[in-house]
Amino acid sequence: xxxxxxxxxxxxxxxxxxxxxxxxxxxxxxxxxxxxxxxxxxxxxxxxxxxxxxxxxxxxxxxxxxxxxxxxxxxxxxxxxxxxxxxxxxxxxxxxxxxxxxxxxxxxxxxxxxxxxxxxxxxxxxxxxxxxxxxxxxxxxxxxxxxxxxxxxxxxxxxxxxxxxxxxxxxxxxxxxxxxxxxxxxxxxxxxxxxxxxxxxxxxxxxxxxxxxxxxxxxxxxxxxxxxxxxxxxxxxxxxxxxxxxxxxxxxxxxxxxxxxxxxxxxxxxxxxxxxxxxxxxxxxxxxxxxxxxxxxxxxxxxxxxxxxxxxxxxxxxxxxxxxxxxxxxxxxxxxxxxxxxxxxxxxxxxxxxxxxxxxxxxxxxxxxxxxxxxxxxxxxxxxxxxxxxxxxxxxxxxxxxxxxxxxxxxxxxxxxxxxxxxxxxxxxxxxxxxxxxxxxxxxxxxxxxxxxxxxxxxxxxxxxxxxxxxxxxxxxxxxxxxxxx
Length: 486
Prior knowledge:
It is built from 17 helices and 21 strands.
């Protein structure tokens, strides 16, 4: 048992020291708190424990989580893993119209009215974009305001750092009606100290003396340049820090000696239901007609290859023609890169297939691409240019061509594995592009994984250094989709 004030709180999963200390500060806050902690320090666990502890104290029953779209599926898993309090959750559906989503949310609320004793904590998870007003209508925002959450958790709160953005204004309104607000971000200010205004306003506008954004920016910012609107520096920084420091807990990963130096995160991406039906059918029969194309696998290794193609973007039919199969992984990767870029983090993306490399290069409009056939001299030039420009756009690398690339670690500590092949050596070398001498920041590897797909099996085989092709030849049933029954 650990005591938080007079409350006896039993952790479901043991916290690291910095997590336990942060939780005490959160629990002892009146209106809210901010966890400005490095990626990989376990902010989500602290948030789950905070909601559970506040529920046990009688302060919180309804919790709203606003997050980037790629984090929608993360929250139910983290709640299941860390919450000692029974809970019910509603996750914004991937498909359907905005009115369908509102109706589903209302149905969930109705179902919870009779079961709140069994499930004393209710958690609704929506992405920031879903609350924006469009065509003078904001049905999800209206439904959330009517629901009246007791606690609002803002995951990756730098998404609302712009005080004048639509999503920020809507978020301010929701937080103003809640009892408690918790901010989570590893990069609260990016390159601009004034980014603190909009985020901490969600906890309490009185932190800044209830002044407007215009007054704030001129009080603490020094402006000039040709247009007069260029931020040249800051003034009264001591006063700024004095105002926000009581509401903030911070942690640098390198200072948390009990944390591992490298963090791996699986980003679970949901399928479009119709596309998943085709994927599931193919996993059973080795053939399926999709978009009027016959996709056929005469042998188990071809089936393995096609299943992995399907999770990425393009699959090849029986005549070798390319068919766009799944776009969700690409969309979630774009969202994740946007989040990292907003935080000032350069990104490397590893992918296996040529079609994936081409589409990633197109969507990010980046000149930094290394694939088979690119000479050592060309590679060196690309890396030098990328470093010189501070990683201004994603660097896309074919995973089988990731050897002998040095220097990337000078500007980058975050990499995304869009897809991988079956070679442990290729995977190990790819990780070594940033996990090597010269790296000065905490490292995070993101793995984009379609739900209930071959992606997880491939990663597990790499982790255990197993021969995946031999495994599926010995047991072809491994390729059959087994639906999650939860």
